[in-house]
Amino acid sequence: MILGIETSCDETSVALLERDGNVRVNLISSQIERHQPFGGVVPEIASREHLQHLFPLVGQALRDGQARWEDVESIAVTSGPGLIGALLVGVAGAQGLAYGLGIPIISVNHLEGHIYSPFLQTTGPSVPLPERFLALVISGGHSAIYDVRGADVRQINRTRDDAIGETFDKVAKFIGLPYPGGPQIEKHARLGTADPKRFPFPVPQFKDESLDFSYSGIKAGAIRLAREQGVRIDGDAKTLADFCATFQNALAAQLFDRLDSVWSRLEGTKPGEVAVAGGVAANGVIRERLQEWGGKRGVTVRLPEKRYCTDNAAMIAFAGLRKGQAVDPRRVVTRSRIG
Ligand code: KG4
Ligand code: ZN
């Protein structure tokens, strides 16, 4: 088995994965409540929380997975990108364990963890990976599309400014919704008879026909609108619902506009699958529209189970399993930014 450790942001997670990709255990200790009073993740608090929870979680993973230390063949750990202090807790923890056990470490890029997460299943081995697929990563830190062929992961576009999840979070914070804002916006947008067309939102375009995402314009527009209309968590419920539905729609419109452009400009044979990953892939409206999008084009859209959308160690162990490139525990390099 492979032990996965993820501590790049505000979730301490430990998983045990079998060689065929079967997830034996995937434990997540969320710090959301600790960060909520500040409306976002406080790096120092994140590091301290990881320090407190990592080893108890490793012990629990072994107990829950009815595994012994001898069953663990290697440790896959997120070494970046993320909050440096938070990453270091996971990496140093993994190094100590690996060194003590005399087993190797596989250093995993957090984004690669997300990219392969749609192929994990709750029970049973992972879904076989196609030779080539397009990966759409939509999370709190990233909005990007990759062309994936085996171990060759090529970035096609990225966001020029804010990530889609970050935009959800910042606008939600402005109107007084608790962190993380994405699920909150989704919840309010679903209330009653929310009218997603009440407030007009243009889809931002670049003059240079760039394929990049851009969310800062939507963020600024949404904040201006919220101020003008007096949208608040404690204000008129119908206005709040309409606002959330409109804003969510605007974010989705930008997503599909760029996905369409990337798709139409792909040269040669198009991939048969689009794998979507990251926290925002948990959004019900976006999930439904992605399925429709794929249906119209005859493309398989592979969505991760909701438990594998947000940060988790199962996806890190899975990426580690695929990579298989083990290093001496003393040689792991931790980086807050990669590439
Ligand atoms: O992948 P993730 O756990 O962290 C990063 O690696 O960034 O994603 C967290 C992000 C947050 O911005 C959160 O608001 C967003 O995912 N998110 C959602 C939903 N669930 C989580 N956004 C929209 N709708 C959701 N249901
Ligand atoms: Zn993530």
Give the structural class.
alpha/beta
Low-confidence stretches: none
- Tell me the number of strands: 10
Overall pLDDT: 95
- Classified in CATH, the superfamily of the largest domain is ATPase, nucleotide binding domain
- Just name the CATH architecture of the largest domain: 2-Layer Sandwich
Q: Cofactors and ligands present?
A: 5'-O-[(R)-(carboxyoxy)(hydroxy)phosphoryl]adenosine, zinc ion
Q: So how many helices?
A: 10
Distance between the termini: 30 Å
The level of helicity is 40-55%
Domain count, please report it: 2
| Rg on CA atoms, Å | 20 Å
Shape: globular
Q: Please indicate the percent range of residues in DSSP E strands (runs of 2 or more).
A: 15-25%
Question: Could you characterize what this model shows?
Answer:
- There is one protein chain.
- It contains ten helices and ten strands.
- The longest helix is centred in the last third of the chain and has 29 residues, at 237-265.
- The model has no long low-confidence stretch (mean pLDDT 95).
- It has two domains: 2-122 and 308-331, Nucleotidyltransferase, domain 5, CATH 3.30.420; 132-304, 2-Layer Sandwich (Nucleotidyltransferase, domain 5), CATH 3.30.420.
- The chain starts with a strand and ends in a 16-residue tail after the last helix.
- With 339 residues, the chain is α/β, with parallel strands linked by helices.
- The protein has a five-stranded mixed beta sheet, with helices on both faces. A five-stranded mixed beta sheet has the order 8-7-6-9-10.
- The protein is globular and about 60 Å long.
- Residues 9, 139-141, 165-166, 168-169, 180-183, 186, 278-280, 282-283, 310-311 line the site of 5'-O-[(R)-(carboxyoxy)(hydroxy)phosphoryl]adenosine.
